[in-house]
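User: Can you predict the 3D structure for this chain?
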Amino acid sequence: MADSPSFWMYIVGFLLVLGPLITIHEFGHYLVGRLFGVQAEAFSIGFGRELAGRTDRHGTRWKLSALPLGGYVQFKGDMNPASIPDPDKIAAIPEEERAGSFHFKPLWQRALIVIAGPATNILVALAIFAAFFMVVGEPVPVETDRQLTVAGFSEGSAAEEAGFEVGDRIVSIDGERMHDFRDIQSAVMLYPGRTFEIVVDRDGQNMPITVTADSHEVTDGFGNTSKIGLLGIRPAQAEFEFERQGPIAATGMAVDHSIGIAHMMVTGVKQIVSGDRSVRELGGPIKIAKYSGEQLSLGPLAFINFIALISLNLAFINLLPIPALDGGHLAFYAAEAVRRKPVGPRGQELAFRTGVAVVLALMVFVTINDLVSLPIFGS
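Assistant: Here is the predicted structure, written as structure tokens:
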């Protein structure tokens, strides 16, 4: 097992991950808002009491606040940092000043301003992944057929019990064609305990085999555990070579890679909601700090890759249709587009206050979850 990083690495790693990503996210909102002529009253990194700040010539208060767990841009006409519209404040805006208020902008402009934050996080992740494919290269399998060929089994292998034999070549899993051993891992890993229909080539004949993946708990070098699905097979070959890509090809690969990660996130949330995974797998700021320090200790490449993963996570979380998050605003705009008029002020305020309560409750829950998982509590 690897040595745990020094305490300062957790702090530095946390600040280097969330600080820039939150700033970039909010700057996306700010830039598109400015593009459409919306006045930003405040741009804050963190919530709560202001620690330091300055007001620029456009009247925007740029500030650093006490709780470094997020940030916000407060546009003209907002009731608070969650961008809840204040009907009285909006109605009091003089006609000549309404052009600079967020809530008087056309629906499409408001939607673009809101989606700009998550979109910026996605672009950051794509840029990092594309740079990896250009500098490090794409992993290309050596001897593809041997990667798909079963050379042995682990003890108590689910595949062996289901009827797999040494020499079988895996053709497809649940109808999806396999190209290398990574495809097999990706198809099974997220679904411990799931039953798969696997087609193998045995002596030139395609043979379907039904197998239920083992639920296996794995532990990384820092003691972090996770539950994965395993078939219990050993391939005849698992070697990869790295081929550097040009900018266009690397960008396409970055998009595919990001879509795959987003699919993993959606699958994980569904499994937690359905009870297939424990809610203890949810992580909050303490766990992010822990992983940040661990990845920082592994070197710049691992840490930069982790930044890309967290950037995608921030985009994903913010796009959830929960009032007070960006996805909640977009849901209201979708309703407005269908109804041809905004949702009533009372309904919006009630929904947003409920959304804030849900987000705060979730933050408390995942923080307690993080604390309980620390070694001092016997985990």
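The longest helix spans residues 7-35. The radius of gyration is 25 Å.
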